[in-house]
Each structure stands twice: as structure tokens, then as C-alpha cells.
Amino acid sequence: MAAAPSPIRPEPFLAIGPSTIKEELRKERNRLRNQHWGNTTGLRQAKHLLGGYNLTRYGETLNLSKGKLRIITGFLTGHCRLRGHLHKLGIWSNDLCRFCDVNEETPVHLLSECEAVERRREGTWAITGQVTKQYNR
Question: Which of 37, 111, 41, 33 is closest to 72 using CA atoms?
């Protein structure tokens, strides 16, 4: 007996709209971007302070003035006028925090650890208690 011929018909229909495809591509792009950020060597301090990649934060950063961008870049790289960095360069005699005189003065210390500037930090950011939680991961 001969095999029955297979019917000729259109390919199976898959109901996926263009917005679903765009959303999946966006998710994949974000996953790859975060994977690249995580796998990039170095950037220890920036990774600690920023966490992951954030497109909104990226856009806001591009609109900052040159002076503010310089300050943020200094904090993210650790190359700023804090005693920890100045001491490493041989410009300052010690690396102790000018406010608490206990720990090394670094951006991470000032933003999340220094008890001497805690009230000022919370008042400036108006997020009582959230600063330390955000940066001490």
C-alpha cells in the first residue's frame, strides 16, 4: 500500500504580536548589558556604588553640568579629593576620614559608613535610613 501524500498547507500560525517581540528583544538587550557590566574586570567602586546598569540614570547623567559630572566621576572611580586617594598619591599625610577620624576616607565610606556625616547625608538625600541600606549590599 502506498503512503498517503501529506497535505499542502501554510506553515503553523503563531500569534505573537510586534509589541511582544520588541519586549523580548528589550529584555535580552538588558540581560546582555548587565552581563557585560558584571563581567567587565575592575570598576570595583563604581559597581559597588551603582549596582547594575540603569538606562534612566545614564540619561540623567548625560544632562549634568561639567562640574557635577566631574564630581560624580571622581566618586565612582575613587579619584577625587578625599583623603584616601590623596594619601595614595602622597599628597596627604594620612588617609583617615576628616569627619570621624576612624576609617579611610573614601566615597563608599562617606556615602554609607561614616556615622559622623550620617545626619547630613540623610538630610541631603531626604531618605532617612535608605542610604546605608542601598550602598551596603
Answer: 111
By the 10 Å C-beta count (0-12 exposed, 13-18 middle, 19+ buried), 99 is classed as middle
- Note whether 132 and 122 are within 8 A (CB): no
Angle at 32 between CA 28 and CA 33, to 5 degrees: 115
Cα gap 135→94, rounded to integer Å: 25
Q: Which amino acid type is present at position 34?
A: N
| Cα 75 to Cα 87: distance, rounded to the nearest angstrom | 16
- C-beta of residue 104 within 8 angstroms of C-beta of residue 128: no
pLDDT digit string, tens, across residues 3-41: 666 666 666 666 788 899 999 999 999 999 989 988 999
Which one-letter DSSP state was computed for residue 137?
-
